[in-house]
């Protein structure tokens, strides 16, 4: 009996998709409909077509019972086509694809938590390599039951099919899209093909009836079959199978017998067919229903508790009965039939069956995550062995970049419950998993629970350490510091010097972040410095910052910061990194700070570290702003804010740059809106060093709004905060200059002049040109014309040699206005024009517009300004161009940036056009010729 009836439109659509694939155009086809509407039959049809065309077919069938088996569908797709070893396997897993090799038997190589993004990128490049031999066609049946990481891979791939010619065809039930939205990624791609095969018409059912039971079948009999099944192809097929087996004649009288069967007839018929089988045959059917399709016959035999030959014979019998599609490895003809087989198992025995399945799969050496997927469906009974397996499955899922799946296993282990000695550790690991995938409220609950359950000194220390790191990442160092002090007290009697060093190193970093933590910081620096085996990078990082705070020359601080950052000992999830990076930022080593932060960003992405994303992007945004790259700063603010749901330590840093960007664009109301929703809204005072940039931004906003009294109060608050933190010297928020501006607006020039003079003195002692130039600009505002000119000319000279292009634009604008007031129109026009060009390069459109408008109103023609060279590149184009200039191939660039080769090609095409270069050698020369490169 042909499977495809009344499916001509769907078949033509699938053939068109394959034809496009032959023309190197990828695509997505989603076959969506209710159970039994023929989706699987269409999938089999497209498989035959693809094989005939010479395509590489990768296929999988998802199962409801294996949704927690992370990357289970991906493994079904790829494992059959991957070589076990040798040069070909090494080729396939070269480059970025190596991040995914741990999914396919190389898990032992993974010694750190994996990043989902890196794994997805690795799978994409693995498919690209496979596509070099034959166009890949990926077929996934019942995708609505696929595990979430596999769904995310399919979505990741679907968004890149413009560069990887692959066809993805999936079947899905209409009502089972899932709450995570991962399946929607497939439908959100460009131009997907959505096919909804419906039920068969009465005419089509009549055709099937006559094919199966004879050409003389009566119209009333055919109509009864259509009415009973509703035209559902699966139900029609099953009904006709039963009618043929029972010898029912397709007459008008037989129609009454069909109609009398009732709406549940099909399930009843399948049930009846199963019930009349011998016990060992039913046991095999139920074993496959529990274990899932395509399990080895030996495992099915173990589950059914019958010898392997009997299991093979039973599978053959079930295939003849139309219950199995094939006998080895056994698989049901349809999920509906499998559901019927499951229904034959008494509810009270399901847990025992899944317990047996876990033991069978464990003995067979199957992945522990697959074993644990069955333990999830057992009844909690305090079995310690279950807890161990669930914890091991959680660890493997976590290392494969699936912390959500890991949390499911740990939740179940927690409910078992574990033995008393393990309960705190299970809750701690569960809290860490929740934090890792940003389920922050749940993470907080579980980490606090873990600390309350801990019953030994070392376990209390571990739990306090995890909670402290989480609370610090949420922006609460004042809560984290006492937790770490307590952890060190608990470790005092233990023999674990490595853990002691790690905890104390983090305590130093968190005490540094706490504005009230100065005394604890000094005490711990002394203690840490005397411990054997201490990492010198931690001490050098803090010493660099102390040199700045003490007002010592910048060169000394820079040397210490570089020593701390050498060797990449300080990683983005560790507190020690930020003191060294902040030192580079304050001393205006912006290129070096940017490189360090880009490296930290790469590390965070590669390792799936989501919590540090906010602070990494926060520093990158500030660096870009100080360099005058407002477009890049805005991109970092946008990406960082999206990656860091509150609460997060990086959000105040991002908000500070967002406020400054709005002010630079003349958007004071938007800046005020950012402040209102942040940690310093409603005039709240800072309590963390991460709040000080935002306090500085609040001062600048109030000055822009003319609220000089409130601005002066905030400047005083900033002074007090710095003194609590340990410095009365120069720092990166110039509160003296802000206070001077407020005094000047209130007609107190003497007070303003004294503060500016103090700032200029400190800046000259610190010997960082940008700080001196900023103070000189402020001094020029109060000086007589001749002295003001000298100040501004010196500021311009200092800034010309640095990287702060926006600050240079402001200094040139001030100098040009001064020349205008002195009547030197020619010099003024040239100076202001250059300031406007710089402002435009910085994407400071408001400043550029104000300057050009000023030139026009004073009788000149409006200048034609055009951005050329590297400033004309967008942030994305600049990233691609830098990597190309570093001699990376298009594929290597795409692998690094998680984009496609076609995207890289498009960016490079625009880069070559904007920079007027024709080769990569010319691109390298162009980059080398730019200041700061």
- Let me know the average pLDDT: 91
| Strand arrangement, major sheet | 2-3-4-1-5
Major sheet summary line: 5 strands, parallel
Stretches with pLDDT under 50, minimum 5 residues? 106-112
**Range of helix content:** 55-70%
Detailed description of the structure:
The chain is mainly α. It is 65% helix and 4% strand. It contains 47 helices and 7 strands. The strands form 2 sheets. It has a 5-stranded parallel β-sheet, with helices on both faces. The N and C termini lie far apart (71 Å). Mean pLDDT is 91; it is low at 106-112.
Descriptors for this entry?
933 residues; mainly alpha; two-stranded antiparallel ribbon
């Amino acid at each position: 009996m042909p499977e495809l009836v009344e499916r001509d439109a769907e078949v033509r659509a699938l053939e068109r998709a394959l034809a496009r694939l032959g023309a190197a155009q990828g695509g997505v086809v989603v076959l969506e409909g209710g159970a039994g509407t023929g989706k699987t039959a269409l999938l089999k049809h497209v498989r035959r077509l693809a094989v005939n065309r010479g395509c590489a077919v990768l296929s999988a069938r998802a199962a409801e019972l294996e949704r927690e088996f992370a990357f289970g569908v991906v493994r079904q797709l790829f494992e059959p086509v991957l070589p076990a070893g040798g040069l070909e396997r090494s080729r396939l897993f070269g480059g970025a694809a190596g991040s995914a090799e741990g999914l396919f038997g190389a898990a032992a190589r993974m010694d750190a938590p994996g990043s989902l993004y890196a794994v997805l990128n690795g799978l994409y490049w693995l498919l690209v390599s496979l596509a070099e031999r034959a166009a890949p066609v990926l077929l996934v049946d019942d995708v609505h039951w696929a595990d979430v990481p596999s769904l995310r891979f399919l979505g990741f791939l679907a968004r890149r099919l413009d560069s990887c010619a692959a066809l993805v065809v999936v079947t899905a039930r209409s009502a089972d899209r899932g709450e995570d939205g991962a399946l929607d990624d497939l439908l959100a791609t460009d131009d997907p093909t959505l096919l909804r095969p419906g039920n068969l018409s009465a005419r089509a059912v009549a055709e099937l009836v006559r094919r199966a039971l004879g050409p003389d079948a009566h119209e009333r009999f055919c109509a009864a079959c259509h009415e009973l099944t509703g035209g559902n192809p699966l139900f029609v097929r099953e009904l006709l199978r039963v009618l043929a087996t029972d010898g029912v004649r397709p007459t008008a009288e037989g129609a009454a017998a069909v109609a009398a069967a009732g709406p549940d007839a099909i399930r009843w018929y399948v049930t009846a067919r199963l019930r009349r089988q011998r016990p060992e045959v039913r046991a095999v059917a139920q074993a496959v229903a529990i274990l899932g399709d395509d399990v080895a016959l030996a495992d099915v035999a173990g589950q059914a508790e019958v010898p392997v030959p009997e299991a093979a014979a039973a599978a053959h019998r079930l295939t003849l009965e139309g219950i199995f599609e094939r006998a080895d490895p056994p698989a049901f003809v349809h999920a509906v039939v499998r559901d019927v087989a499951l229904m034959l198992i008494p509810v009270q025995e399901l847990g025992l069956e899944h317990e047996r399945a876990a033991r069978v799969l464990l003995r067979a050496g199957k992945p522990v995550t697959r074993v644990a997927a069955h333990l999830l469906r057992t009844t909690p009974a305090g079995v310690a062995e279950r807890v161990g397996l669930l914890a091991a499955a959680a660890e493997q899922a976590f290392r494969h970049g699936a912390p959500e799946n890991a949390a499911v296993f740990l939740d179940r282990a927690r409910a078992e419950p574990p033995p008393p000695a393990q309960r705190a550790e299970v809750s701690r690991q569960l809290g860490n998993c929740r934090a890792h995938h940003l389920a922050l409220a749940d993470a907080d609950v579980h980490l606090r629970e873990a600390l309350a359950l801990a019953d030994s000194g070392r376990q209390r220390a571990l739990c306090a350490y995890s909670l402290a790191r989480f609370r610090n990442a949420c922006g609460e160092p004042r809560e984290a510091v006492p937790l770490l002090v307590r952890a060190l007290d608990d470790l005092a009697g233990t023999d674990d010097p490595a853990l002691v060093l790690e905890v104390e190193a983090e305590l130093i970093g968190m005490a540094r972040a706490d504005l009230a933590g100065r005394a604890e910081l000094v005490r711990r620096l002394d203690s840490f410095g005397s411990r054997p085996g201490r990492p010198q990078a931690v001490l050098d990082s803090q010493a660099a910052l102390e040199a700045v705070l003490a007002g010592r020359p910048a060169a000394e601080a820079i040397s210490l910061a570089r020593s701390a950052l050498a060797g990449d000992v300080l990683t983005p999830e560790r507190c020690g990194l930020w003191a060294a990076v902040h030192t580079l930022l304050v001393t205006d080593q912006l290129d070096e700070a940017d490189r360090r932060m880009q490296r930290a960003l790469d590390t965070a992405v590669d390792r799936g570290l989501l919590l540090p994303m906010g602070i990494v992007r926060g520093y990158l945004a500030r660096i870009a702003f100080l360099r005058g790259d407002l477009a890049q700063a805005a991109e970092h603010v946008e990406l960082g804010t999206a990656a860091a749901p509150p609460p997060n330590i990086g959000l105040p840093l991002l908000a500070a740059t967002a406020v400054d960007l709005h002010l630079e664009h003349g958007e004071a109301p938007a800046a005020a809106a950012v402040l209102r929703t942040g940690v310093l809204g409603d005039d709240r005072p800072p309590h963390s060093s991460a709040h000080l940039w935002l306090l500085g931004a609040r001062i600048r906003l109030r000055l822009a709004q003319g609220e000089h009294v409130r601005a002066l109060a905030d400047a005083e608050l900033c002074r007090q905060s710095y003194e609590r933190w340990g410095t009365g010297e120069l720092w990166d928020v110039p509160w003296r200059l802000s206070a001077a501006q407020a005094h000047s607006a209130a007609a107190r020039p003497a007070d303003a002049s004294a503060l500016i003079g103090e700032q200029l003195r400190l800046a000259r002692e610190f010997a960082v040109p940008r700080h001196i130039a900023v103070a000189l600009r402020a001094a020029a505002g109060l000086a007589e014309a001749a002295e003001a000119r000298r100040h501004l000319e010196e500021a311009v000279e200092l800034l010309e040699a640095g990287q702060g292009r926006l600050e240079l634009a402001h200094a040139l604008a001030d100098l040009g206005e001064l020349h205008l007031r002195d009547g030197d129109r020619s010099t003024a026009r040239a100076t202001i024009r250059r300031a406007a060009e710089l402002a435009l390069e910085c994407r400071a459109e408001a400043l550029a517009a104000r300057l050009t408008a000023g030139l026009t109103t004073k009788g000149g023609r409006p200048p034609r300004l055009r951005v050329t060279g590297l400033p004309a590149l967008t942030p994305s184009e600049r990233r691609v161009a830098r990597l190309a200039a570093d001699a990376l191939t298009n594929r290597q660039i795409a692998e690094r940036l998680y984009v496609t080769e076609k995207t890289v090609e498009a960016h490079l095409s625009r880069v070559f056009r904007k920079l007027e270069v024709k080769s990569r050698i010319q691109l390298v020369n162009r980059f080398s010729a730019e200041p700061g490169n």
